[in-house]
Structures are given as structure tokens and as C-alpha cells.
Amino acid sequence: MTGIEANKNLVLSFMEYISTGNIRAALAMMADNATWWVAGKPDKFILAGTKTKKEFVELLRKTGAILPNGVRTTPTGITAEGDRVAVQAESYGETTSGKIYSNMYHFLFVVREGKIQSVNEYMDTMHAKEVLADR
């Protein structure tokens, strides 16, 4: 398996672990100094901005409280080159108040030495804010 194929498999496994609630396994795939960046203005949208791995864990905890059955994120396309893996995906989850969270994403993962170093996440922040923040 080439480095590119290994990187793609790592990212797809990471996304599957997150979707199925196996957070411990997912976090083991991230470097200790990994970052997670979400598009948007942090002062307008709590999910936006750059998070450390520790802050990312807290973000998962907070969204888990809103979406008790989790969010299923399904990759719809994947492209890899060098240490970068780009994934298009769709999500689905139901909030505690019964609202449906269904979003579309583009993730850009950087993988080095078998660990996720950084993730850039692009999504419909308006939908996320309406469903997750304004419940």
C-alpha cells in the first residue's frame, strides 16, 4: 500500500470512528499537537476557528450532548496527493429537540508519519448555527 493509500485509509477510518462514537480510537489517529479548523467567524459561530486536539475533544463532547445519537458523516468523495487527503461528505443526526442536522462538508486532512496533523473543515455554517447553536 502506498503512502497515499495509507493516508486515505487512515482518514476514512477516522471518520468512521467519529461517526460510530469510537472517539478514543479516532483520537489515537491524531497527533498530540493536531489542530482542527472550522470555517467561519469564531465571534459569530462557536464551532468556528482553530481548535487544539484538547479543544476538539471538548467540541465533540458539546455536540454529543446536542446530538445524543451522534452524527453519521458519510464520505461521498475522496482525493489524495502527498500528505493531503480531501474528503467531501454529508452528515445526518437528530438533536435532542428533534431538529434534523444534515450538512455537506469538505475536509482537508494533512497526514504525516501515520497521524492526522491538521484538519480544515468547510460546511454550511448557517445551517449548523441554526440547528446546533440556536436550539
Keywords:
34% helix; single chain; alpha+beta; seven-stranded mixed β-sheet; Nuclear Transport Factor 2, Chain: A; 135 residues; 4 helices
Structure description:
With 135 residues, the protein is α+β, with helices and mostly antiparallel strands. It has a single domain, classed as Nuclear Transport Factor 2, Chain: A, CATH 3.10.450.50. The protein has four helices and seven strands. Strands 1, 2, 3, 4, 5, 6 and 7 form a seven-stranded mixed β-sheet that branches. It is globular. The protein starts with a helix and ends with a helix. The model has no long low-confidence stretch (mean pLDDT 93).
At a glance:
This protein has helices at 3-19, 23-28, 53-66, 125-133; strands spanning 30-38, 49-52, 72-81, 84-94, 100-101, 104-112, 115-123. It is an alpha+beta fold.
